[in-house]
């Protein structure tokens, strides 16, 4: 049950207008490639819709995370991979990596980072927010 070929451009144009009206820029950008895959039989109609929506949701989630990081006003973006464990040899690297998995939250445990200034406490706490 396919549409007559002369209706397809009109339908696609209406979908483009609807996506623009709904403020779905990533879905609009991905539409042509998804329609091409659909026409070639690589994906079903439901998979095409799913892909279109997933593309838009991914963009929105990434934008939400970027906005949250800006609002957090972290001085610099720090990652655990950027932490110099050699500079602070008293830290147990495996223990820090285990803490970074945030399993203590599910177990309702409290974690305290204590030590003198300049030992990397803030860096490690900031990385838990980002990684």
Automatic annotation (TrEMBL):
One Pfam family recorded for the sequence: IstB_IS21
InterPro entries per UniProt: IstB_ATP-bd, P-loop_NTPase
Protein name: ATPase AAA
Annotated IstB-like ATP-binding domain residues: 19-124
Superkingdom of this protein's organism: Bacteria
Gene Ontology molecular functions: ATP binding
């Amino acid at each position: 049950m396919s549409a007559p070929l002369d209706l397809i451009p009109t339908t696609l144009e209406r979908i483009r207008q609807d996506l623009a009206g709904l403020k779905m820029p990533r879905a609009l950008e991905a539409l042509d490639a998804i329609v091409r895959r659909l026409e070639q039989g690589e994906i079903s109609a439901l998979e095409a819709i799913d892909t279109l929506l997933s593309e838009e949701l991914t963009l929105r989630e990434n934008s939400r995370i970027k906005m949250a990081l800006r609002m957090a006003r972290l001085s610099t973006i720090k990652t655990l991979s950027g932490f110099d464990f050699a500079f602070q040899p008293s830290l147990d690297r495996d223990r820090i990596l285990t803490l970074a998995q945030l399993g203590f939250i599910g177990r309702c445990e409290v974690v305290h980072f204590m030590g003198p200034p300049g030992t990397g406490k803030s860096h490690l706490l900031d990385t838990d927010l980002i990684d």
